[in-house]
Amino acid sequence: DEVMPTCLEFAVSSTLSLYA
Asked: How far apart are CA 18 and CA 7, in angstroms?
């Protein structure tokens, strides 16, 4: 991953945390 999280990564991590 990049040093700074991309918008896509943020969206994916947020979605995973919601469905976890």
From this structure: 16
Q: Which two tokens stand for residue 20?
A: 């976890």
- What whole-number distance in Å separates Cα of residue 1 and Cα of residue 20? 21
Predicted structure pTM score: 0.27
* Coil, helix or strand at residue 7: helix
Query: For residue range 1-20, what is the model confidence (pLDDT) as tens digits?
Result: 566 768 888 889 988 898 76
Nearest residue to 14 (alpha-carbon basis) of 5, 1, 4, 3: 5
